[in-house]
Design brief:
The chain has three helices and no strands. The chain is 38% helix and 0% strand. The chain is mostly helical. The protein starts with 19 loop residues before the first helix and ends with a helix. The protein has a domain of 42 residues. The longest helix has 19 residues. This is Nucleoporin nup61. It comes from Nosema granulosis.
Length: 118
């Protein structure tokens, strides 16, 4: 019957029981006043006075550098060229000794149509 005995509240684990280890850990943590304050480096461009935060000091600095790549329009001639190269590749893979003059004739015909429309 000794096993049916209830445990004392001191022996039970509960959120309200005090844990000695956590109390000691709380006391050892440094206070915010004791921590060293780390300074951050200021951003500068080429040693200019004022840094990045002063917009007048960086005006015209990056105008000679092209940041964005120019967009090449995907027009009809580029599409024709891609199709032509793909057709040649397929024919050469299947029959490497075949005459390709008919592909060049088709290319000239479609190129003339595109040039007449524009």
């Amino acid at each position: 019957m000794a096993s049916n005995r209830k445990r004392k509240a001191e022996d039970q684990l509960s959120p309200y029981s005090r844990d000695i280890d956590t109390i000691e850990m709380k006391e050892e943590t440094p206070k915010p006043e004791e921590q060293k304050i780390k300074k951050r480096a200021k951003a500068t461009i080429g040693g200019r006075k004022g840094g990045v935060s002063d917009p007048d000091s960086i005006k015209g600095l990056l105008t000679s550098v092209q940041i964005v790549k120019p967009v090449v329009p995907d027009d009809k001639i580029s599409g024709l060229n891609k199709s032509f190269v793909e057709a040649i590749r397929k024919v050469v893979e299947r029959e490497s000794n075949k005459d390709l003059s008919y592909l060049f004739d088709q290319y000239k015909k479609y190129l003339a149509k595109i040039e007449n429309k524009s």
